[in-house]
């Protein structure tokens, strides 16, 4: 057990087309930018940093598979905001994976994909 680990600080999404991913995330979220370089972009998403990083290392893997997302990121909103977020996603022509749905686990969710097929979720506790 890694008892020294107390929290998640960064979530990093590996990217094939970094410019396209930067544009998508910048257009979608109003998170402040913590840092940016030629190979990455980091947002301050509340207490966690959300980073986009170009695949540059041998062990990063290559290619994307939209039929098999590499990551799922979930963003918490108030219950009455789920439908509004869905409408905004549709207006931006974002690929919707599942429209607003009340889940048996007590969440209202909408699932959508980023340009490289990663699954993103807007959810509220209900």
Question: Which helices and strands, and how do they pair?
Answer:
Blueprint: E1 10-15, H1 18-28, E2 33-37, E3 40-45, E4 48-54, E5 72-76, H2 82-91, E6 96-102, E7 107-113, E8 119-125
What features would you describe in this structure?
With 126 residues, this protein is of the alpha/beta class. It has two domains: 1-56, 2,3-Dihydroxybiphenyl 1,2-Dioxygenase, domain 1 (Roll), CATH 3.10.180; 69-126, 2,3-Dihydroxybiphenyl 1,2-Dioxygenase, domain 1, CATH 3.10.180. 17% of the residues lie in helices and 40% in strands. It contains two helices and eight strands. The chain has a four-stranded mixed sheet. Strands 5-8-7-6 form a four-stranded mixed sheet, covered by helices on one side. The longest helix has 11 residues, at 18-28. The protein starts with 9 loop residues before the first strand and ends with a strand.
